[in-house]
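User: Can you help me understand a structure? I only have the sequence.
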Amino acid sequence: MAKSDYYGTLGVRRDASPEEIKKAYRRLARELHPDVNPDPATQERFKEITQAYEVLSDPQKRQMHDLGADPFAAGAGAGAGGFGAGFPFSDIMDAFFGQAGAGARGPRSRARRGRNATIRLELDLRESGFGTTRELVVDTAVLCEICQGSGAASGTHPDTCDMCHGRGEVSQVTRSFLGQVMTSRPCPQCGGFGSIIRNPCQECSGDGRVRTRRTIKVRIPAGVEDGTHIQLAGEGEIGPGGGPPGDLFLEIVEKPHDVFERRGDDLHCTVQIPMTAAALGTILTVETLDGKEEIDMRPGTQSGQVLPLYGRGVQRLNESGRGDLLIHVNVETPQRLDPEQEELLRELAKLRGEERPTGKFAPGQQGFFSRLRDAFNGR
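Assistant: Let's start by predicting it. Here is the structure, written out as tokens:
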């Protein structure tokens, strides 16, 4: 196999990292090991990937292979089909049995961490903006008070498994062309726990926990907004076997407000004012989250103008200060006029020289043909 493409044998790129090469070899070793596929063709394929890995996992042999030389010519390892000092026996063991020392895993613990839970919590704008305290009723799993999480009936305890003798796993020796190979697997009698609950608790049926409904009080900080997640550590479900609880997550859902639209820490609203008030100016009373306030609207206020009220937005989350309230002005033009009103407006237009207005285009508001002309002129 001196001229074999070892990269193609393992199915990796020529610039593959050592970790990628090892990962590819372990995957193929699990599929092609003679104990799994004992046919001769598979056994030969297994020898090929093993020899390929022996070369590509050794920097010197890999360099020789990349240069077109035979990495086994100078006695760097065993010949074709052989297993020399570089044979990756430990990687074969890892591919099947996990990392080194996996045989000493020991029994599994019955206590496992509980699941996390998520609750959607609806808040109005005032609650999310300034914070609040809520009492939540949750259906969850709690520690069984009868067995205290052990799962065994009162006055009893789990018995040591007589199949694995408390180790949680059983071993089996098989013969292959490699010689005797020992494999370990979870004990089928105790499920890998090393013990058996022969008299399960009647309250929890051996699970170590029961479901119940409980009430918890939570504080919602000021400044949360729609989509914010609040983590309550240890408020989730108790785990099986009396394991530690998971976490409870609150997903904030902010209900729409009748007046204000929230954008970050700022609030926006729109106020309609008559044309005369915009022209002459007025004192405008507006609603805020803090109550009613008066603002001085200057003469000549235009439609689309924004009047800010600084510090009247919502509280910044985990910071001091508040956002702003931005009032968007919409000037209403009267649609129906009685004869007297119409005559007064015509007189005003005459006094201002606006009987036949020509209209003015502002930058960014030109007509279609003007924009087309500017495009051809390169403006």
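Now, to help you interpret it: Residues 74-87, 97-104 have pLDDT under 50 and may be disordered. Residues 35 and 369 are 81 Å apart (CA to CA). Let me know which part you'd like to focus on.
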